Amino acid sequence: MTPARLAARRPLFRCLNAPSRPRPQLRDVSYQHAPKPKAERLPDLDHVSIHRAEAMRRAHYIRRRNWLALGAALSMIAPIVLVRLWDVPPADAKDKNDKGSGGVLDMISPRPTRTDSPRAAVGEFQGKKVVIAAGDKIIAAPASSDNPTASDADTVELVETGTSYIPYFPKTIMLPTSSGPEEVESEAEYTLLGLGIRKVSFLRVQVYVVGLYVRTASLHILQNHLINTVNPTASALIPGEKEDLRKALLDPERSNQIWTSILSRTGTDAVDMAFRVVPVRGTDFKHLQDGWMRGIASRTDQVRQKQAELLRQQAAEQKQIALPKPVDEGEFSDESFGLAMKEFKALFQGRGKAPKGSVVLLSRNKQGALSVMYQPVTRTNKGEKMGEVSRLGEVTDERVSRLVWLLYLGGQNVSSEDARKNIVDGCIGIVERPVGTVEGMVQ
């Protein structure tokens, strides 16, 4: 048989002699026995369900936390925005709203017809009932008085403060004073020039009500000083001059200069004045002391910085130049001022609480001496009862009283801007009349 014929028959013999089971190829064996990749494995269904449920629960609590945080923030911000931006309707609008229909409530239970005065005073003031007298004046009269008037000897004319905590301040007060060469103790009448509320923090929390009183016999002296500030040749100010005085008393620099000039006077040209401070909530003397001490320290630091700037300017010029000095060099750096501040601080140490309604009086005489008096208040079954006025002490250095007065009257940041504006209004009221006239007194 030729080789060609053998090559042609070879496939036939291979097919007849083929094995009964096909031989596996190496590629198939490796594919069947190799482990499958992780991505191709079937996941555990129970594990997937638990993981998904946990993720959904966590997302739910996160959303709930975020909404609660947003609600808490809005509940704190909304009252502040409403108090600062919402205008209080005027009294006339309130009366109109009161006269209007109350809807379903009025149909069920109609309100009685009001026959009293549209403006009425309620409450008490230092154990006396508060009523409206002739001329729409608010007075405090004894409970036994039937028809009290403002001219009665046992009545006190009141001024509204603008806060419901301490609603009224007396228009005049009597303070102890010494007169004559023998320094005989007596009482003198002081007239309210202006008042305001001391507020702290961005929430405008009310701390106390403060009012400036001027001795009635010294009103013409203060009147003369204020008039000479604008027009030294005038006996009263015209409307344009009054506006100039108002701007000067509200200006940080000018107000500081005007009141420093008035407070620096002694003798017959000095003005007897007093501050009446009444807390609107329970506090203590330590808190009041800290506020005054911080204010005084801030003022003295400003003076030192201004003086140092002037000295640096002089040194840069290499010569003595005529610069306006705010104070003499070292006015608040000597040892005597430090001792005076220690005396002022000691007046309030160990005094304890100053409850709501109690009275702290800071008086300044013609020599600039600062006297501190305190009148406590006690709660009884019949209401509040004012105690006896006690003297806490005195600081003779006039710089201390001058700095305390400037905390409320002059400078950039005063302790109560409302009090300063009200006091400025009172000053404008006494300069529109000739010096020394009865009509020039504060109304």
Automatic annotation (TrEMBL):
Keywords: Membrane, Transmembrane, Transmembrane helix. The chain crosses the membrane at residues 67-86. Residues 17-40, 92-119 are annotated as: Disordered. InterPro entries: Chalcone_isomerase, Chalcone_isomerase_3-sand, Chalcone_isomerase_sf. It comes from Trematosphaeria pertusa. Residues 189-424 form the Chalcone isomerase domain. This is Chalcone isomerase domain-containing protein. The keyword Electron transport does not apply. GO terms for molecular function: intramolecular lyase activity.
